[in-house]
Amino acid sequence: MFPALTRHHVVWAQKPRPVTVLDRIVAVVNDEVITRLDLDERVRIASKQLQQQGTPLPSREALEKQLLDRMVTDRVQLQFAKETGLRVDDTELDRAIGRIAQENKLTPQELRLVLEKDGVPFARFREDIRNEIVMTRLREREVDTKVVVTEGEIDNFLSLQQGQQGGNDEYNLSHILVMVPENASPEQIQARRGRAEQAYTQLKGGADFRQVAAAFSEAPDALQGGMMGWRQASRLPTLFTDALKTVSAGELSPILRSPNGFHILRLNDKRGGGPPVIVQQTRARHILIKTNELVSETEARSRLRNLKERLENNADFGALARAHSEDASATKGGDLGWLSPGDTVPEFERAMNALKPGQISDPVQTPFGWHLIQALERRNEDLSKERQRLMARQALRARKSDEAYQEWVRQLRDRAYVELRLEER
Q1: pTM of the predicted model over 0.70
Q2: Quick check: is 400 in a domain?
Q3: What CATH number is given to the structural domain containing 127?
Q4: Rounded to the nearest 10 degrees, what angle do helices 122-142 and 108-117 cross at?
Q5: 181 within some domain
Q6: Burial of residue 223 (number of CB atoms within 10 Å: 0-12, 13-18, 19+)
Q7: Poorest-confidence range of 1-5, 214-218, 336-340?
Q8: Is there a contact between 341 and 305 (Cβ–Cβ < 8 Å)?
């Protein structure tokens, strides 16, 4: 008996003929492999994505190298997550896919049909979403939770902003990053610089930035054409803001060197921060029921409907929150205090903003579970010093987190055994 053929086997004809290889290994990552079929499928999906964005396609060779590099980096992170016990179960995955479908105004079944019509197998889509969740949680655990912003850093940040003309400016940027390995040799650094210079020469020659980014950039946004979008100056590294001082809209920065590698920026647009913004704040409270293996979506929603019925019969919201809510605010009767735009997840904020003061929502689903929300009162508030400090803390945390994550990924990859075989035929 012969074993069943798989895609890693060869096909033999009845008569002696040359062997036809159905698949081959294009990269080894520790004890796992990436195959040519894996890479071809990723190239197909990425090409379609770029075409839908209107981005001119780079050469097949450049796109393959770019995507294989991304696949290696992802594989290293997923291996580390598995080794350290980080998992996403099917129940949690189904909830995430349900939210994606809801955001696209589809049912999960309709989402599946749309994906398969576009040639994306639903099983692959599920695993891609699972991997995205795992890597997001990995970043939170290994990087974000370890970022510390001190009061002294906030003081220095605010004083620098006040003394710096344009400290509140916002920049719309596109970005190309060519990474340099940790402890790189002079030859490696020179090779990486040469790659950045090659990208820069193409851009100076009039090439489309999105196409060059897709071919050369090793930043997470490479396949989005390197678009960073609008960023406050406070959220950008000093290396970037210093370079942008002499750059006009539509122009490129020089090639910039950071500990992570070589950067090219294009300034798409710039706008002033303007005067302090008056924001509408809502004082709200809520009751949260989380879903898990023991509590289904239906049960959580039903429990909240029963609680709402009791509230409509004059039960005390605070008492019910203390007894039933699974949120840290339960001890305060569910009181969340004054909330500004962006303080909560979008689903919660939309439902809260639709309420009149005193009104209680129907059960509302967010990534945290199911909520009953009551809007207590509203006010218009200028950005106070306390709010300015909070925004400064968030900006510093985001900046430090981005830099720390890039460094962490680079070190993780440098410690891995990686063998690239794309050039082999």
Answers
A1: no
A2: no
A3: 1.10.4030.10
A4: 110
A5: no
A6: buried
A7: 1-5
A8: no
